[in-house]
Every structure is written in C-alpha cells, then in structure tokens.
Amino acid sequence: MVTLRATLDALLLPLPIAVALVTSGLVARRLGRRGTACAALACGLAIAIGSTLGPVANVALYPLESRYRSILSAAELPIAPRFIAVLGAGYDPRDELPVTAALDPIGMVRLAEGLRLYRQLPTSTLIVSGGPVGSNPPSAQGYARAAIALGVPAEALMVFDTPTSTAAEIRLLRERLGDATVIVVSSAAHMPRTMALCARFGLHAIPAPTGQIARTPVLLNGPTWLPSGTHLRMTEIATHEYLGLLALSLGLT
Predict the structure, then answer these.
(1) Which has the closest alpha carbon to 169: 92, 81, 85?
(2) CA dihedral 175, 177, 180, 183 (to 10 degrees)
(3) Helix (H, G, I), strand (E, B), or coil: what is residue 85?
(4) Do 173 and 233 belong together in one domain?
(5) Residues 186-200: pLDDT tens digits?
(6) Whole-model pTM?
(7) Which of 60, 120, 189, 239 is the S-S candidate for 74 at Cβ 3.0 to 4.6 Å?
C-alpha cells in the first residue's frame, strides 16, 4: 500500500503529467487527430514550463505555507505544552555519512525547529516520529540519533518509529498522549493537512510550521520569470499537498 501510494504521488506531479500529455499528443498526431494532438501538446508544454516559473510556484505554495503562523518564541504560547512532536521525513543512513547528512533536508529543518522549541521548553519531551520508507530504517530513529548527537538526553525523547503516513502519526500521537496538548512540528506547506488530521483524530495540537520557501505572490521581478528547478520543486510540493487535502476531504485517507 505504501509503495502504491508513493508511486501515485510521483505520477501525479507536474512533469509526469506534462510528459503524459505530450506523449499523447505525439501519438494523436501520428494517428492523424490534429486537433487532439495540438490540445494535448499545448497543455503538456504549458504545464511543463509554467511549473518552473517563480510566480506560478509562489502563487501555488504561499497560501499553504502562510495558513499557520510560526512560533517565534515559546513564551508567546498560552500554555507550556509537555510534548513537542517532530513529524517524519526521509532518512537514508550510510556508513560514511554523519546522521545529519542521512536525514533529508526537510527532516533536518523539522528537527532543528523541534530542538529550538525544546530548548525554550526545558521540561518538555521531544517526540520524534516516522516509520520506514522502502528499505530504509524509520526516520524516527534517525531523528533520535541526531537529537542525541546534538545534546538532547535520551530520557527526554520518545520514539514513534512505526507510522508510515501522516494520518498514522497523528493517530498514534492521540492514542499515546490522550488529551495532552502537543506542539506539532512539520513543514509549513504540510501543516494544513496535518492540522486537518489533528482535528479528525481529536489531537490537541499547536502548529509549529517551519521550512517556508515561498514568498508573497506574485513576484514579477527579474530571474523569477526564468525556468528554475527550485520553482519546479515548489510547484511539486504544492501539488502534492493540494492532492493530499483533496484526498482527505473525500475520505480517502
């Protein structure tokens, strides 16, 4: 199931969709269906090029990332939560790499934010979450290794290394923490879906979004109009999250 979901996630992104449309257009042209061919080719090229442009990427991603405010200081919170949960990301350990390199960039940003808040709430417990993806070990184990290497006592950690989806992570947090309030750390673009799942499962969560990469739309100056792999990645993130929110609203997750 996890492999099927990952495959669908990979296919339902701008470039694979654009390639499918262009391929369909070429086949239609070969079959003499010029109207269909022109439409498919035009749509495919528009998606392929548009998804690499800064204004498109920012317009798509900014509404997701700006929905919840970051916690600039734990002192601004109405209560001091006992738990801080860092949601899972990628972890690919290799013997020649330190653990900070084995965690993917998204995971390191999430963990850094969790550690920052943990330092401001010294009596809290840091929960690291995330199960295995493919043949890799659980990301929660990588988080735990990195947190300990960065000075967090092992007794201040809780390791949830079985959930393989955000829904499973939130469900387990609710089962283990009950009615306790928890700060949930995740990427800003991922936070709307995370908080929707918290509401579904009744988890008392305070959002702590991090890793914001979008800027106020629309950017019209200079290089933002040039095709860029960075902008493509932003568009991919936004597409993934909007599809996730759609699946959630339809009860598919």
Answers:
(1) 85
(2) -100
(3) strand
(4) no
(5) 999 999 999 999 999
(6) 0.90
(7) 120
